Each structure stands twice: as C-alpha cells, then as structure tokens.
Amino acid sequence: MTLHLKVDDRDNNYRLDDMVQALVGTPADRPEGKLKVSGTAPYAMDVLPEGVCYGVLVRATISHGKLSGVDVDAVNALPGMRTVISGKQFLRNPAQGTAGKAPVQGVKDIDYFGQPIALVVADTFEQARHGAQILQLKLKQNRDTIVDPEDPDAKIETPAKKQASQGNLDKAMKEAAFTVDQHYTTPGHVSAAMEPHASIAEWDGDSLTLRGSYQMLKFNRAELADALGISEKKVRILAPYVGGGFGSKLGIAPEAVAAALAAKELGVPVAVAMSRQQVFETTMRRSETKQHIRLAADKDGLLTGIGHEALVSNLPQEDFSEPVTQATPFLYRGENREIGHQIARVHRTCAGSVRAPGEAVGVTALEIAMDELAEAARLDPVELRKKNIPDEDPSKHIPFSSHTLAETLDEGAKRFGWDKRNAKPGTRKDGEWLIGMGMAAAVRVNMLIESKARVTLASDGRAIVETDMTDIGTGTYAILGQIAGEMLGLPLGDVETRLGDTDLPPGSGSGGSFGAASNGTAVLLACEEVRRQLCKKLKCDDKDMTLKDGHAVVGNMRIALRDFLDGNDIVGEGHAEPGKAEKKVRQATYGSYFAEVGVNSVTGETRLRRMLGVFTAGRILNEKTARSQCLGGMTFGIGMALTEELIHDHRDGHIVNRDFAEYHLPVNADVPQLEVVLMEERDEWANPLQAKGIGELGICGAAASIVNAIYHACGVRVRDLPATLDKVIDGLG
C-alpha cells in the first residue's frame, strides 16, 4: 500500500516528536563512512565488468563553427583500437538539472571550445588516450564569434518573466537620505567535485545498464533514454556512491551517452571517464555575473527602495540562466523595487547549476551593498539588517512560513563578540597586519520535490529503506535510516538504506538542498503505512502503540517485532509531492556569518582568522551531517571571496585554468577553525518532518562577510570578486 501526501497546508502534528527511539536530530555516524574512508566504497569506475573496453572523449578546438569530418585512418592503425564513434546522438553539453530530456545533440555544429565530438575506444585506457590525442578533426571556425558577455556585439536577451517592478525606484533614490548605487562582478565558478564524471555502459539485448556518477537518477534515466531514442523502461542507472556533485552531475553528461553508443556498437561494456580538464571544459560552469544594485533608505535607515539587475551568460538554446536575484524580492523591506535579468548568448562552456545557484552570487553582492549602506547611514550592519526584515514577502504579499533571520543575527553577534568591534575601518593592527570584522546575512529558498520511497519491515525485525535517491556526500544513508529507525522503533544498526538504483522507487535526487526533506518525507509516509499495518495486526490505534528497540508495546503487552511478524514482511510505500503550501507562504532558510580577517599592509594579502556561521533550517535531521554541510558551504564562501575565478581566453573563450593547479580552491592553509551553530526551529509549512534544506545555505552570503571584513580592516572596498591581493593593494596607497 502507498501513503500519498500533497503538502497543501501546515502540518502541526509534530509526528517525529511522538516517537521515542531518539534517533532524528542526533549526530549519528554515516553507516557507509567506513567504506568510504577505507577506499572500499564502489564509485562509478570501481566496478569494471569482464571484457570492458575504454573510451576517451575528443574535444573541439574551436569555439564556434562546423565539423565537416573525422579522419580515423591513423587511429585505426594503432594496436588495440576498437572504434571511433561520433554523430548526431552525441550530447553538446550536459542536461540541466531536472530537465528529464536530452539537451542539444549532434557534432556538426560546434558551440564552444571543448565540446565533445568523438569517442575513441580501445582495449586499454592508454591506447584510447593515444588514439584520442592523434585523431584528426576537420574543423572550420566561424568569423565574428562572440565569447565575451560584455562584447558590444553580444546578443542580449531580456526575458519578460524575469523582470519585476513595484513603485518608483528612481523617485525613491532621489528622495532617500542615504543611497548605494554600485556595480558588482563575480567570475565564473566550477563545481570542482572530487570524483570526475565517469560512466560504464553495458547492454543486455536492448536493455542498458549504466553505472555512473550522477545526482538525480529518475531525471537522468529519462535524459539518457531520450538521447538514445529508447524507452525509459530499458534503462537502469546505478550510482550508489557519488564523489561530490555540487550541481555538475544533475543532468546526464556526454560521457554517459558516448559510452552507451560505443557499448551498443561493440557488444561489450565500455567505460568512459573524463579527465579533470575535460570536466572543467565539458560540464557546467557557474556564469560570471555583472550586478547593478541600488539601495534607498530614509534617515532612520529603513529601506524605501531596492534595485537589483544582473547580466549573466549561457550558450544559445539553453533555458537555464543563473537566478542571481532569487532572494532579493523577499529578503528586505522596501516598497519601491526593480528586478532585472539579462542573458548574453556566448560561445563558452555551458552554464548551469553550481553550488547554490542564484543566492551564492546574488546574496553576496547584495550583502556587500548592505554593508556600504550601513556605513553611509552610520548604522551598525547587524542593526541595519534587523530593522529591514519585512513582516511578509514584499513581492507577493504572502506570509513567511517561518522567519528566523533576526535570531541568527543576534546569536551570531553575541557569540562572535561583535560588540567589541570599532566601527571605524583600519583602527586595529597586529604588527603589519590590519585586522577587521565583517558580517552578512544568509538566505536560501526552500523547495520540496516529488519523491517516492519503500520501507520493508522484514520478518527478522530489521528494516530496509529503498529509493533511487543518491548520497553525494551529504549524509542521505544516515538521515533516511534515522527517520525509518525513529518511526519504527529500531536502532540505526537495524536499518539498511539502499540508494542509487533506478529499479527502486524514484526519489527527488540530490540537488537544490531539497533531498533530505523531500525523500525523508517519503520515507516517513512509508513508515506510517507500515505502522498502520502493524496496528491492524495488533488491533490497536496508533496512539496506543509504542515502538522502541525492536519491540512493540501496547497496553501491558511487550513483544519483539521479529516474533510478532512470524516470518512475514510488512511493506509500505510513501509518495510525497509539493502542493498548495508553496503558493500560500514564502519558504526559506536563514542564517548569519561573522568573519575576522587580517590584511597585510605591505603585500595586500588577506588571511581569514576566524569565521562563525549561525543557521536555521527547520528540524535538523542529523546534527553531524548538517554541520558538515555548513562547513563546506562556508569553505566555498572563502573560495568565492579570496581565490576562485574561472578565466576564459577572450580570443576563443576556452578555459585557461582548467585544473586544480590553476583554479584556486581554498586549501587547509586558507581555512581557519570554522564554527557552526545550528539553532532550533520547526517549520510546519515545509513538510511533516518540519525540516528544510541546509546543504547550500552555508554558502549564500558567506563571501560577503569576508569582503566586508576586508573593508573594515583596511578601508578598501572590493566589488570585483575575488578579493585578490592586487585589488586590495591598489587601494592601500
């Protein structure tokens, strides 16, 4: 039986609080943790079938033009060579997240430098790599190709649905006591997941099994089937372990389709793994942004107007564009508003979802602007934000499902010692280092995605949780096991969670910070169905039954579940999907960041000395994994603020720094001890768990706290991120 729920209204039953197993919310260890740290967890390329051949992708070396032919003679003469494939089914770029259909296909039209246009397959990886290196391509570059979004000849689109206006912002700016009118820029970023994209394809007749590194399997299955022109029922994807994704593995990517085509042609399994350089060039980048922010405030610092306009870029024929202004409409008050969004169509690597798309860059720029407004109005930055928290969503005039920004600001200020900060920049020194403190608000939209799960209470008294949901390092194995153990009264060790297989009920997938809440709700519903069947057998109401430590207690009777089941399994399925609730209220998660930096007065170098993040995200399902997610997000923020920058050659658009040697991620020396505080909250509108997403909240505004601290340290305001030492030293004088 399936228990189905559409989240149409608030749920104030607080069902998990009725349980007594005391699992949910605890810092439980990951059940698969030992496998991962011992190197025995099987990732995409770790399970090689017998007789496997290896494929290596070949890329275009022009940014826009035509492929007229592929000369395979020299390659076919090499030892061990099996085939060279290309053609109309190749993917131009990965599918966007939740697309559920193939992206642009075909190799004749080249749209960016690095586009995959052929696959060389051989008996060994080394042979395939050699063949790929010498394969001759007949390419013709188009004239006047636009690769820079700020090229005056770039085609700029202004989608009507992404523009919004309230009141009269120009008038508000003229009449305001204090204003900010500035431009901010952020560079492109990449996901930089530890595990590269990889796929192993194997056919059994007309059925395909693909072991890959993917985040959203029910969508990936549909995308792969569409690309190959076969039924979804003929495709099975396995991804039990994924070595990070951060958005880059939301949609099916070129290596999966190429592996499947080659395996079909040869009749043997084919494995294709991208090199690190190919991952940079061929999978998703975050678009660079150019943002124009205008703030108007009265004499008391109350906002009367907010303007936020953004220019981003993407390939032609791509629907996605970085949702830079996603949080701006509801974060602060202000009756006069202008939201603008423009897309430059350029021939660069495809832009897509990367690490909290939208808020990661949009909130960062807005929070730097708020710091500038606080200085102009001579207000404490914390107090400025608190007094501008709206009573309702100003853009839709609907209530908030919950709102905890003020509480996180107060808690952060108290813990960080914000009251000891001298408001005047450049007043604190430590030798040749100038010391400053900065802060910023955190906000991220909250979503629920349709999910299904199956829970089996087995005859031996153990439980099995099944869904095609993935664990990309976020803790899904632990969290879903905790929910099932809590609902069925079982220790975590008596719950087995099976993930990453499209033969299992389709979950939401990992992305958008919606995985735990969406799939967790499906698991909770499945457990409710199991409990219903238990109550029927015990001839009692649910309120009269207590499940704990593998036993059922009803009145004066206490019986072990394995004895009571008498050799029979009980199976329940849960189906959760969004409903009217998301239209009735504004759902979001909130937090605050506080950072202290040292800026070297001689070199302009910035060193982060300490950093605090305070967050709320409804019910915290696992304290340890939630904290880990926030630590990761804050580390991303350090990279955004100080080091990370995707660099394109202005001549042909190719990515110059396409590996970890030149794309500078924060390393141990860049990251001091970070402190994370998770505050108690319940959101009755979110779902029956009262839980919300936390995976991406930790990055949304983190960089701004560091940039604001740089200004407080030395008086240099950096509006072009990252704040590398050359930009700081120019302002030191």
Estimated radius of gyration: 27 Å
Structural class: alpha+beta
What share of residues is helical? 25-40%
**How many E-type strands?**
31
- DSSP strand (E) fraction? 25-35%
Q: Let me know the largest β-sheet.
A: 7 strands, mixed
Number of helices: 18
**Unreliable residue runs:** none
Shape: globular
Annotation keywords:
alpha+beta, seven-stranded mixed beta sheet, 733 residues
Task: Explain how this protein is built.
This protein is 26% helix and 26% strand. By secondary structure, it is an alpha+beta fold. It has a 7-stranded mixed beta sheet with strand order 4-6-2-15-12-13-14, with helices on both faces. A hairpin with a 5-residue loop joins strand 29 and strand 30. The longest helix is centred in the C-terminal third of the chain and has 24 residues. The radius of gyration is 27 Å and the shape is globular. It starts with a strand and ends with a helix.
Layout: helices, strands, pairs:
Layout: E1 2-7, H1 33-37, E2 53-59, E3 65-71, H2 73-76, E4 81-85, E5 109-110, E6 116-122, H3 125-134, E7 136-141, E8 155-157, E9 164-166, H4 169-175, E10 178-186, E11 189-190, E12 198-204, E13 207-212, H5 217-228, E14 235-238, H6 254-266, E15 270-273, H7 276-282, E16 285-286, E17 289-297, E18 303-314, H8 328-331, E19 336-345, H9 359-377, H10 381-387, H11 405-416, E20 428-430, E21 433-445, E22 451-457, E23 463-466, H12 476-488, E24 495-498, H13 515-538, E25 545-548, E26 551-554, E27 557-560, H14 561-565, E28 570-578, H15 581-584, E29 588-600, E30 606-616, H16 623-642, E31 674-678, H17 702-714, H18 725-732
Parallel strand pairs: 1-28, 2-15, 13-14, 18-19, 23-24, 30-31
Antiparallel strand pairs: 2-6, 3-5, 3-7, 4-6, 8-19, 9-19, 10-17, 11-16, 12-13, 12-15, 17-18, 20-21, 21-29, 22-23, 22-28, 25-26, 26-27, 29-30
Helix pairs in contact: 9-17, 12-13, 16-17
